[in-house]
C-alpha cells in the first residue's frame, strides 16, 4: 500500500485548505476538489482525490491502518519507501510508502502541530503525545536526519493485565506469582527493570492490581499507560511546553504534588530523570510500598543507571547509594526474547561494598541456574513485615525441608543454594552492617 501519487489537483486542494483554514472532513474535501477542478472532473475522480487527501490530512495518513492493527507497538519511517512495523515479534518492513520526502515531512509537521508542538528548520525534532490517540510521536527533520525525515510512532496501550493473566501467558509461573504477591503484601518498595518493550509497565500494572483495595495508589507518568485493576487509583501525567515555551509540567513536580495527596503507594511510571531524587526521598520518609520502572538491561546495571539519573537532579553518587540502599528493597527484571515473549528473568541482591561503599549486585536467582544466596535475605524481609515466604515448608528436591525460621548464621553453617524452577526475577536491596 502506498500513498496516493501527487497530482496538481491534490496540490491545489491542499493549498486551498491551508490558506483558507478549512476543515478536512469528507464534505469540505469534496467541495474543495470540485472548486479547484472547475467542474471538469467526474464523481469518480472526486472520490479518488478525496480518499487520497483523507489519507494524507486525517490521522496518521498512510500509517493509520498500521497503527490500528491490534498487535502494533511501533511504526517507524526511515525513508519514503522504508516503513517498518513491530507487531510484537520484531521489526518487519511493510509495503506502505510515501510519494517523496516532502510527503513524510508534511506528515511529521502535521502530527507535531496536532500535538501542539513546533517542528520546522529552527526546531528540527519533536517528542510529543498525539491527543486522543494513545500514540507517542518522535520526529526528526532533514538535514539533521541525514537520510531524510524520520518518524517514530509508539502505540501506548493501557496496561490492564492482572497477575493471573500474566501467569496464564507464561510471563510468570504459579510459584513466581505467589512470590510477587508476597512482595506486594509486605509493602516492599520495588523497581521493575528491563529494556525497551520488555513489559515493565505491564508487570508494574499487574502488581498494583494486587494492592489491597483499602489502599490509595497515586501514579505519576510521562505517558498515560498504567491502568491497574484497582478501585482507588489517582493518575497524573506530565506535560511538555507548548509552542510558546510555556505550560511545562515536569515529572519531578508531579512527584512532589503526589506526596501531598495522601498516597498509600507512590508510583512513578518510568524513572528517567531527576525525579529519582524525589522518589527516593519519599520512600525514605514513610511512604513504603512504592514502585516504578527503570530502563536497565540487567539488575547489576541499576545502581549505575540511577546514579546517572540522580546527577540530573543534583544528587551526588554517595548520597544516591545511601538513599537507594535504604529506600528500595526489591527489583524485578523482565526480558523480551527473540520470539517476542516477555518473562521475569533474574534475581539479585544489592549490598553496600565493604559495608559502607557503593551498592553492588550479588546474584540471588537466575532463570537458568535457580536460587542463590539472596533468598535468605528476602525471606527475612518478608517475615519482618509479617508475611511468610511462599516457598517456606516446600520440599527441597535436593534435601529435607528447610526449617521455618533461620538459625543464626554464626551457629549453623550456610546452606548451599538450591535450584528451584520459579519464573520470577527478584533483587533485594539492603544495607550490611558497617
UniProtKB/TrEMBL annotation:
Spans annotated as Disordered: 388-416
Family: Belongs to the GSP E family.
UniProt protein name: Pilus assembly protein CpaF
Pfam families: T2SSE
Limits of the Bacterial type II secretion system protein E domain: 58-332
SUPFAM superfamilies according to UniProt: P-loop containing nucleoside triphosphate hydrolases
Compositional bias ranges of the Pro residues kind: 397-416
GO molecular function terms noted in the UniProt entry: ATP hydrolysis activity
Amino acid at each position: 500500500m502506498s500513498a496516493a501519487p501527487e497530482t496538481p489537483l491534490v496540490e491545489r486542494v491542499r493549498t486551498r485548505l491551508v490558506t483558507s483554514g478549512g476543515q478536512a472532513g469528507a464534505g469540505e474535501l469534496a467541495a474543495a476538489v470540485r472548486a479547484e477542478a472547475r467542474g471538469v472532473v467526474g464523481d469518480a475522480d472526486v472520490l479518488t482525490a478525496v480518499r487520497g487527501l483523507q489519507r494524507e490530512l486525517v490521522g496518521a495518513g498512510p500509517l493509520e491502518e498500521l497503527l490500528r492493527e491490534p498487535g502494533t507497538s511501533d511504526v517507524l519511517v526511515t525513508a519514503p519507501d522504508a516503513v517498518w512495523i513491530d507487531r510484537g515479534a520484531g521489526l518487519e518492513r511493510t509495503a506502505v510508502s510515501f510519494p517523496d520526502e516532502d510527503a513524510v515531512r508534511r506528515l511529521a509537521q502535521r502530527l507535531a502541530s496536532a500535538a501542539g508542538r513546533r517542528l520546522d528548520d529552527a526546531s528540527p525534532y519533536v517528542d510529543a503525545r498525539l491527543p486522543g490517540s494513545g500514540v507517542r510521536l518522535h520526529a526528526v527533520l532533514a538535514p539533521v536526519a541525514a537520510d531524510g525525515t524520520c518518524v517514530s510512532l509508539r502505540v501506548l496501550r493501557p496496561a490492564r493485565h492482572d497477575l493471573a493473566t500474566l501467569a496464564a501467558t507464561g510471563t510468570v509461573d504459579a510459584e513466581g506469582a505467589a512470590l510477587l504477591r508476597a512482595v506486594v503484601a509486605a509493602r516492599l518498595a520495588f523497581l521493575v527493570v528491563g529494556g525497551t518493550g520488555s513489559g515493565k509497565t505491564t508487570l508494574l500494572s499487574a502488581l498494583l492490581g494486587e494492592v489491597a483495595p483499602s489502599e490509595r495508589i497515586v501514579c505519576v507518568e510521562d505517558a498515560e499507560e498504567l491502568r491497574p485493576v484497582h478501585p482507588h487509583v489517582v493518575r497524573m501525567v506530565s506535560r511538555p511546553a507548548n509552542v510558546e515555551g510555556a505550560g511545562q509540567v515536569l515529572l519531578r513536580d508531579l512527584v512532589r504534588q503526589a506526596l501531598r495527596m495522601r498516597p498509600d503507594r507512590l508510583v512513578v511510571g518510568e524513572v528517567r530523570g531527576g525525579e529519582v531524587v524525589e522518589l527516593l526521598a519519599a520512600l525514605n520518609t514513610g511512604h513504603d510500598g512504592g514502585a516504578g520502572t527503570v530502563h536497565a538491561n540487567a539488575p547489576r546495571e541499576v545502581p549505575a543507571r540511577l546514579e546517572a539519573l540522580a546527577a540530573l537532579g543534583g544528587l551526588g553518587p554517595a548520597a544516591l547509594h545511601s538513599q537507594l540502599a535504604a529506600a528500595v528493597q526489591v527489583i524485578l527484571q523482565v526480558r523480551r526474547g527473540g520470539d517476542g515473549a516477555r518473562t521475569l528473568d533474574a534475581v539479585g541482591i544489592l549490598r553496600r561494598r565493604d559495608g559502607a561503599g557503593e551498592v553492588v549486585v550479588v546474584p540471588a536467582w537466575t532463570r537458568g541456574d535457580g536460587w542463590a544466596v539472596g533468598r535468605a535475605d528476602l525471606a527475612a524481609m518478608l517475615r519482618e513485615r509479617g508475611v511468610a515466604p511462599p516457598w517456606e515448608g516446600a520440599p527441597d528436591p535436593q534435601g529435607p525441608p528447610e526449617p521455618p525460621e533461620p538459625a543464626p548464621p554464626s551457629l549453623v553453617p550456610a546452606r548451599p543454594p538450591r535450584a528451584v524452577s520459579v519464573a520470577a526475577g527478584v533483587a533485594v536491596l539492603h544495607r550490611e552492617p558497617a
